[in-house]
Every structure is written in C-alpha cells, then in structure tokens.
Amino acid sequence: MADTSTPLAAEHRALGATMTGFGGWLMPLRYTSDLAEHRAVRSTAGLFDLSHMGEIHLEGPGAAAALDVALVGSATAIAVGRAKYSMICAEDGAVLDDLIVYRLADEHFLVVANAGNAPLVARELAARTHGFDVVTTDRSAATALIAVQGPRAERIVTALTDPADVAAVRALPYYAATRARLRVGEGAAALVARTGYTGEDGFELFVDVADAVGLWRAALAAGAEHGLAPAGLAARDSLRLEAGMPLYGHELDTTTTPFEAGLGRVVRLDKQDTAGRLVEFVGRAALAARKASPPARVLVGLRGEGRRSARAGYDVVRRGAEGSVGAKVGVVTSAAPSPTLGRPIAMAYVTPEVCAQGVELAVDVRGRAEPFVVVPLPFYRRATA
After folding, report:
1. How far apart are CA 92 and CA 95, in angstroms?
2. Annotated binding site for substrate
3. What confidence score (pLDDT) does residue 69 get?
4. Where are the domains of the chain?
5. What's the CA gap between 177 and 270, in Å, rounded?
C-alpha cells in the first residue's frame, strides 16, 4: 500500500526535499542537510510538517470521566487551555501509544496521537468511552499540523497571528494552547499550542487542511529574517534524541510499560471519580503490579567516548579486555551523532545493575566494542531566562 501524502507534499518537493515513508505517510526526510536543519532549530528556528499526526476530539459532559478510564493519566485534572502528556495502554499495561491531551473547553478534549497509531487510538477511544455521555470524532484527515520550533519561534508565530490574539499567544506557558486567528489568506482559525518535540521553545499550529499551504508559505516568509529553515524527519529525530524524548516503536512499544521507560510519573494509579471511587482505568491492575515489582530493564542515556555511532537494535555489552565485546546487558533503542554535543549519543534499555550514572559500557558496532558511558537524560536542556 502506498504511503499517504500530507497536504504539503507539493511544497516539500518544491523545496527539494528528499521524501521517505514514515508511519504510513510520505514525509520529508531532509531539505538540505540533517546537520544544518538540526542547528537551525537549536540556534534560530525550524519549520516542520506534522500533518501525519492524529487528532481525535472528545466532546460532552462525560468527556473527562471517559478519558480517565481510557488513559493512564487524569484528564479531569487538566485545566482548560492546558495540555498533558499521557499514554493509552493495553490491559497488560503495555503502551499502545503516547499522546498529548489538550483540554480546549470544560467538555471538549483533543487527543493527539502518533501517525502510525492514530487509527488504533481512535478505535480504542471510541470503544473505551462507550456508555459515557461523550461524542468521539476522528478529525485527523481534516486537520493539518505545522510546528515552528527554536529560540526565535515566538517572534515568527506572533508575526503570523492576528494582532488581537498576539498577547494571548505570547503569554502561553509550556503545554498550553489558545484559539487564534492567523494572518493567512483572509484569516485562518487555528489552535496554537506551546508544545513540541525538539527540546526548544516552540509552537504547534492546528489548522484546517484547506489552510495548510497558505500557513506553510506564510511561515516561511515571516521566518526568513529570523533564519527559519524547513526541517525534516532526520533533524526531528536527532533533536528529540538530544532532548531525551521517547519515540514510539523505539523506546515505547507493546512490550514496554511506562515504568520501564522512566515515565511512571504519567500514570495516576490513585485517580478518583466524582464520587471519590478509585478509577479502574484500562491497564491499572497490571501497572500497579509492575510498579511494585523490581525492574527487569531500565531506560538510560549513553554518551559515546569514541567517534563511531551506534544504531537502534545494537547490543549494549560490558566492556571487555582491550576493546573486546563482553556480555550483553541491553539493547540500543535510538542513537545518532549529536550535533550539539559533538559526540555519539544513544538511549538504551539495560539491566538494573549497570544503569547507574557513570557506568562504563560498550555497544557492539559490527563486532567492535565502542565505548559508551551511562549519563542522565536528557542529553541537552535549553537555557531559560
């Protein structure tokens, strides 16, 4: 089956992008170079097409309660205009997808799912919310999502915003969203969220598909004086890796619970309904048991001491004598040379006895033990004023 194109496919080709399949979608891998696009996001700003992501809306008096049963987090605790990172798990506690949940109004939520998992998430939400006073609508096909990420993102996005809404956009804290009109064509309605997947300040702009091309072109024009560069999947991956952010299919999958991934904080085992009763959300029993058990593996950061990078799927091993490959203690989930740090980095699942900061390990790179050391995540944290 052919990959689906986003509404911006022709724009990417016009900019000379190399296209690739990702999660069932045809997406830009890069426009110029991975390094240049990564550095643009860290120093100025990058422009991303995220229209492959899924957008599922839940509306009605029972929306919050329904999501409390469907997801591991507490939707009831989200204030209007704010967002939370969450997960949808199976009965055995395995992660089906990681999500961002926005509360747009008291009885209106938006759940943003990863591209390849969006149909599954939409089906699961519809099934899990059955019986609640809520309407679940998958608006993925009608929604385009464009992100501006980097230190100059606010300047660019406010330049795109109707003057009446600029103050609200500028005032957004991290993980918050507001409705705004954008200066695109005769005016485009948008949900502007201060969220992102790069470790930098930035915004994600949800608009109707009909406004996607106009917004993309307007963003490029508004960002020209600020050093904005279109950025593809390769830069997005190295940026999120430096920021220690998990990627479904790598750090998260159906063999993993939130606790192995170091994300147990998003699981609310103690959440209660309006009557004060414990919410038995899907996967709760398995996750409670998992939290009480010692871990079999732990997600860690690895910083390379040499120049050769690892790859996802490579074995993590103990360091042997004179660079030999020792006993296997884990597996790499994501890896890349870090443009910001100037050395290879990786995330990996390892056994608990070797997960402490400073432990010297190695990665088996085609039969050669390349030295790595365990370090805290994230590898990169942006400076804040």
Report:
1. 9
2. 204
3. 98
4. 1-293, 298-375
5. 27
Best CA proximity match to 60, nearest among 108, 125, 102, 111? 108
| Residue positions forming the annotated binding site | 204
pLDDT for the residue 385:
57
- CATH code of the region 298-375: 2.40.30.110
Q: What is the pLDDT of residue 256?
A: 97
- Supply the pLDDT for residue 30: 98
DSSP state of 109: E
pLDDT attached to residue 121: 98
List of the chain residues with pLDDT < 70: 1, 323, 385
Sheet of strand 188-193: strand arrangement: 177-182, 188-193, 202-208, 143-149, 45-49, 228-230
Q: Which pLDDT score is estimated for 383? A: 83
State which fold the 1-293 domain adopts: Gyrase A; domain 2 (3.30.1360)
